[in-house]
Amino acid sequence: MTNHIALFEPLMPANTGNIARTCAGTNTELHLIEPLGFSTDDKYLKRAGLDYWDKVKITYHKNLPAFLETIPDMSKLYLVSKFAEKTYTDPDYSNVNEDHYFLFGKETTGLPENFMRQNAEKCIRIPQNDDHIRALNLSNTAAIVVYEALRQQGFPQLDRTHLYENDKLK
């Protein structure tokens, strides 16, 4: 099956482009929940995603309820928030026969507060020093979370070794 990254009303094209690059490199599907704060034709998005945008399976959703309707097993939905109690390493993502969905909020306001309260058991966080920063960068957070899922899954369908002929690296 597949890992999925979903972005709720993303505002910054560079973050979305960087996340698209991560999705391309990890065979992760990207879901963009409208409205977007930019055009997907935006020059900044193309610069950030450059050669990778067309290599990513992207699904656009009109709103959050439309996205949620596409998830076959809601127990595999994880809401990423700095306000969560559980850390991102707590859930078991190891079953490669299941889809795992990681939903990230808008850069400025996160996910809707009421939605977060109704789904508190689905919330996960990356530990951080809140005294020094408001939040980690969205694209960095998405990469950390998806790579934890992939690590637990044994990095399926990813090249685990990369040999360079010219460098004789083995």
What would you note in describing this structure?
Could methylate the ribose at the nucleotide 34 wobble position in tRNA. Residues 4-147 form the tRNA/rRNA methyltransferase SpoU type domain. InterPro entries: Alpha/beta_knot_MTases, SpoU_MeTrfase, TrmL, tRNA_m1G_MTases_N. By secondary structure, the protein is α/β, with parallel strands linked by helices. It has a single domain, classed as Alpha/beta knot (3-Layer(aba) Sandwich). It has five helices and seven strands, in the order E-H-E-H-E-H-E-E-E-H-E-H. Strands 3-2-1-6-4-7-5 form a seven-stranded parallel sheet. Helix 2 (43-49) links the parallel strand 2 and strand 3. The two termini are 31 Å apart. The model has no long low-confidence stretch (mean pLDDT 89).
Summarize this structure briefly.
It is found in: Cytoplasm. The protein is of the alpha/beta class and 170 residues long. Helix content is 28%, strand content 17%.
